[in-house]
Write a structure and sequence with these properties.
By secondary structure, the protein is of the alpha+beta class. The protein is 21% helix and 23% strand. The strands form four sheets. A four-stranded antiparallel sheet has the order 4-5-10-7, with no helix packed on it. The protein has a three-stranded antiparallel sheet with strand order 1-3-2, with no helix packed on it. Helix 3 crosses helix 4 (190-198).
């Protein structure tokens, strides 16, 4: 009896572990699955409808504009040019995307997270102060203060990584989060929270 229960517990844990391990972009089942808006005679894969592979063209894998600087004349001093499945339909099911980030002197890309991707960043021009917060929480900065205009390219491990800018999500949500809740969570006066919620939170994406 004990052996039977032990076996069932082991099988249940393995099933749970394999379920949790599969939470990512699905692996492609074919070479291409070019996303299309028109579902007629198409197959639905990874949130997009796939074009008939026989109708795939080179244009489905091309994007023009990553060489052009974004407008950094805004409150945060940066501009993000996204290149994901919305811009390159051929990225569907391939699990990759990119962004170009332009910065004004002393500009910033506000604290954010990508709910569906890991990111790697390469600075092409200038110097950038980069850091991330761990779950401990600990802040891990890297590099030196930004003193000039710069350009960075980032690669992300998803065709549609998503982005949640922390301040926008917390203080600019619609409908607004109850200020009493936020005051307690951030250990701030309720009037400070109301002031933060009344501001316009710029989205550089």
């Amino acid at each position: 009896m004990k052996k039977g229960v032990s076996f069932l517990v082991t099988v249940a844990l393995m099933a749970l572990a394999s379920f949790l391990a599969s939470a990512s972009n699905p692996s492609p089942l074919q070479d291409t699955c070019v996303a299309i808006a028109e579902p007629k005679n198409a197959v639905f894969v990874n949130g997009k409808f796939c074009k008939n592979p026989n109708l795939t063209k080179s244009e489905d894998f091309f994007y023009s504009g990553l060489d052009k600087p974004g407008n950094v004349s805004n409150p945060v001093g940066s501009a993000v040019t996204q290149v994901n499945v919305a811009q390159i339909a051929g990225l569907n099911t391939l699990g990759i995307s990119a962004v170009r980030i332009d910065y004004a002197p002393y500009g910033q890309n506000p604290p954010h997270t990508h709910p569906r991707a890991t990111e790697i960043l390469t600075v092409l021009e200038g110097t950038l102060l980069v850091g991330f917060v761990t779950s401990n929480p600990a802040y891990l900065p890297k590099s030196s203060t930004r003193v000039m205009c710069l350009l960075a390219i980032a690669g992300l491990s998803s065709q549609n990584p998503g982005v949640i800018t922390i301040a926008n999500a917390v203080f600019g949500s619609d409908p607004a989060i109850n200020p009493d809740f936020l005051a307690r969570a951030f250990q701030l006066d309720k009037n400070v929270i109301k002031n933060l919620q009344s501001r316009f939170w710029y989205d550089n994406n």
